[in-house]
């Protein structure tokens, strides 16, 4: 194995046990992919051909509506990255995934992923659990996008990505929250001096 898969192995072991043969299989099926800052994992209108695992770096998921970018998720170290809707259906993406930092990934193609599920000792269980996690996260993101206030979405950002503020711009955070950067500044200003750590409902 010419590139390390330690983080990937540890992440899969959170879900299922891995034998030495399983680890060898992972090394055969996953391939390295480097993204420079600004490079695209996949763009809106393309067909997503890979599932990736981020070893180092950071990506953003966004849609472009009438020339306006709307960020709805981020992917960072030890996260899987993919436009699963496009990957599974082999239809063009309705969203874009772009590197915010220089990023080192390992990726697996659709055919190799099917082989992984078939040959990994607990491959079917791993696939089922991962798909369930993706489904729950995606539904949560969609519900939040349409029902939560900006203040609640900002709190959710801080809860889900507690160390990310130092790595991205205020524009990125504002886009995720669903407001202009100046509106995000006002939200932060309103919070200044308030002694609470979690916001559970709109003001």
Automatic annotation (TrEMBL):
It comes from Spirosoma flavum. This is Crp/Fnr family transcriptional regulator. Gene3D superfamilies: Jelly Rolls. InterPro entries: cNMP-bd_dom, cNMP-bd_dom_sf, RmlC-like_jellyroll. It comes from the Bacteria. Residues 35-117 form the Cyclic nucleotide-binding domain.
